[in-house]
Design a protein that fits this description.
It comes from Falsiruegeria litorea. InterPro entries: DUF1272. This is DUF1272 domain-containing protein. The protein contains two helices and three strands. It has 102 residues and is an alpha+beta fold. It has one domain. Strands 2-1-3 form a three-stranded antiparallel sheet. The radius of gyration is 14 Å and the shape is elongated.
Amino acid sequence: MLTLHPNCEICDADLPPETDQARICTYECTYCASCAEAVLKGVCPNCGGNIVPRPIRPKGAWRSGTGLENHPASTTRRHNKYSVEDRKALSDKLKDRPAQDR
């Protein structure tokens, strides 16, 4: 189950569970759409994988045991541990390589 982290790891922008501006990689590293595209160029600075839109978890339980009411989003904020230079170097190296070939 996705953790739904509450913030962008780069700029610390709030990313509530209902936003369509959250992006994630396969390890659930979380970024805002702006940082994912303009800063990271679609490359996760932690794993080198691609970054995609994060699904929106329904507020209500349309099926028993589902939705935010049963599985709330995380409130633990995360921040990227790599320097601006390190992130740029990896993004520049991998941005033109298809995700399946990284």
